């Protein structure tokens, strides 16, 4: 089991993750955490801001991590749908809304706040390694 975990984490290193959250502190903390795990990160406080940054670097992300409630533009569900239409990549939706259901079509994995760091890491690793 330990070998499998180490192998998946090694495979995840260097993958590009796009993070969308309108809370600057959460965005910064998530970016810092992902970078400490070896990921490259593009952030945006909205779908539009994240897309502008992705266009700047001209790379395809390997994973989307998005908050459900965004103060500007579409919801996290909409942002994920638009990004997945362009890139067909796995997504994690984070929400404090306990009534949100898990995706029926596998479009995203749902994490409820407060997010457990170990569970978050396991889902991030599993999402990027599956690609």
Question: What characteristics describe this protein?
Answer:
alpha/beta, five-stranded parallel β-sheet, disordered N terminus, 46% helix, 5 helices, 131 residues
What does this protein look like?
- With 131 residues, the protein is an alpha/beta fold.
- The chain is 46% helix and 18% strand.
- It has helices at residues 2-12, 24-36, 47-57, 76-87, 117-129; strands at 16-20, 40-44, 63-67, 91-95, 109-112.
- The protein has a five-stranded parallel beta sheet, with helices on both faces.
- Helix 4 links the parallel strand 3 (63-67) and strand 4.
- Helix 1 packs across helix 5 (117-129).
- The longest helix is centred in the first third of the chain and has 13 residues, at 24-36.
- It is globular and about 35 Å long.
- The two termini are 20 Å apart.
- Mean pLDDT is 88; it is low at 1-5.
Largest sheet: 5 strands, parallel
Q: Beta-strand level of the residues, as a percent range?
A: 15-25%
- Kindly provide the radius of gyration, computed on alpha-carbon positions and rounded to a whole number of angstroms: 14 Å
**Tally of contiguous helical segments:** 5
**Alpha-beta content class:** alpha/beta
If strands are numbered along the chain, what order do they take across the biggest sheet? Answer: 2-1-3-4-5
Query: What is the mean pLDDT?
Result: 88
Q: Count all strands and give the number.
A: 5
Shape: globular
Q: Report the uncertain regions.
A: 1-5
């Amino acid at each position: 089991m330990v070998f499998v975990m180490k192998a998946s984490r090694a495979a995840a290193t260097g993958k590009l993750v796009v993070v969308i959250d309108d809370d600057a502190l959460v965005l910064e903390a998530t970016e810092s955490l992902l970078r400490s795990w070896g990921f490259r990160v593009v952030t945006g406080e909205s779908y539009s801001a994240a897309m502008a940054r992705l266009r700047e670097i001209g790379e395809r992300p390997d994973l989307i991590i998005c908050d459900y409630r965004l103060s500007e533009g579409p919801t996290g569900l909409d942002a994920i749908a638009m990004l997945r239409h362009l890139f067909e990549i796995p997504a994690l939706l984070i929400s404090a809304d306990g009534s949100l259901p898990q995706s029926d079509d596998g479009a995203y994995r749902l994490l409820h706040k407060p997010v457990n760091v170990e569970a978050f890491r396991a889902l991030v690793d599993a999402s990027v390694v599956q690609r």
